[in-house]
């Protein structure tokens, strides 16, 4: 049962694809205050008093736990590479929550600007959701359980994106690969070491001067190079950034300027933001005509054989604007004219003059500043809309530009696409990766916690930078990241420029990496099958334990294990030097380990808490009682998996329905794609 309440004049975000009539009256849960109310001022506030045992699920990409209680989260897409616990906003805006407990219901606040969820931060028992303008649609969803509410929500937002099968293989990435030789070396070293690999990602250096839809001079014969790698079963996946470089003679820039396809300032001039290429303009992806134009630019690469992309910097990230820089320079000039030296050599201002702290603050706040997001406008069907009012829709619509273009380029074919920034609705066009995480042990767990929350919001093709993006990784950290990553649909090792090299062959005893990656390919038929079933049935691929065992008071509090598909539970190790971990089993399960010699150990463990040993070079999972899963022989790329090698592991006498298809086309709803396998 879904009710929709409209307040003011909402912007149509296109997150919801189903027509739902508007309800009269007020939501059955909580209290809403709109304009003029003493509580909300000019804005909107939803208030709900939580029972002490209520659990709050949702919010997709966010800091902290699976249970979101006890913190304040702000939907405000932000390029922030420090994903620490104190953060309120990350790259996405996913305004869907489920309150599960005394009363169980879901809420979707369809609002494209900044929106805050205070979930027991100000008062432990109170959830307050508020935003500046009382112009939004609120969906209230009732159902039998949290899981049922998710399914209903997913149904109204449309089917989740389905990538090609190769995208379930392993991908290697690193910011800094630049030439054909760099890419060839990665492909060759993976193949030489028999380390499985399906994709190599091309970060910004493949372009000429970071200009979208260009190639640096090393790639003159790009189509040949794409073919050369594809012949070795490796796909190249280029990055596309949001900002288009300002440069006379660059066709994308010139066409955009001529056709007024870029976001503009109030005076009608094109807004300038500095990002990787220096000064750029932002394509106005909220304008359908400009979106079509930008999307068609991807053809430059698809025409040369490219079958997948990652969209980046699309919050959109701004290093500084021309205006912001001018203000900072002015402040610096005033500071230079007025500062006096302290005894320790630092500068101190005289009364009323600019202080070193003020100047420092200004310089630090140049990037991604709220002032800049209020300096430019979108043209949405002839109506001018200030960017900050619809800020959270930019990444969504950049990815939609590509997705709509792929449908024009080849309506039968699937393309790989994932994005950094997103809003609910984008889940129909692509997946997401969780941005610039760190080579920190705590980030294995953070990734694990985000996965089910993202699934609730429709994002199924998800994963994090394995090994960690920022900071130097270590061999054991990468192996433990892989212990989780072998299960995430998007499985990619990516690292920042200047960090320690972390391709799987950079460390001693490469066979351990070969084994861990191999397990991914052995499980791929199962993982793909469960992904497809989740996508086709608006279900979750990753569930919190509480979704499967809602009556089990211990299971609902577990924050470091996940249910995957309908058959298995995962419990990765996320602490350095640990030889294993404690795990809670809500029912009897089979503890399965993929051992380095290729064999599989199985042990039945009863309901309760167990300490399980999992060595660095072992991959572990738990099969639910009465179930079984298919396991194939290891392969070095997704197309190389021998489906005839499949054998079943798990409980005797059980069955599994395997979904499979060619992984290329969109013939999903075909009965022939399902086969029953018996144990
Ligand atoms: C951003 C992306 C990161 C990429 C870098 C350079 O930080 O999040 O993945 O490597 O830009 O393009």
What's the gist of this structure?
This protein is an alpha+beta fold and 679 residues long. The chain contains 14 helices and 41 strands.
Question: Can you walk me through this structure?
Answer:
With 679 residues, the chain is of the alpha+beta class. It has 14 helices and 41 strands. The strands form eleven sheets. It has a nine-stranded parallel β-sheet. A six-stranded antiparallel β-sheet has the order 30-31-32-37-34-35. The longest helix is centred in the C-terminal third of the chain and has 27 residues, at 510-536. Residues 175, 203-204, 239, 312, 420, 435-436, 494 line the site of alpha-D-glucopyranose (GLC).
Task: Provide keyphrases for this structure.
679 residues; alpha+beta; nine-stranded parallel sheet; 14 helices; 41 strands; binds alpha-D-glucopyranose
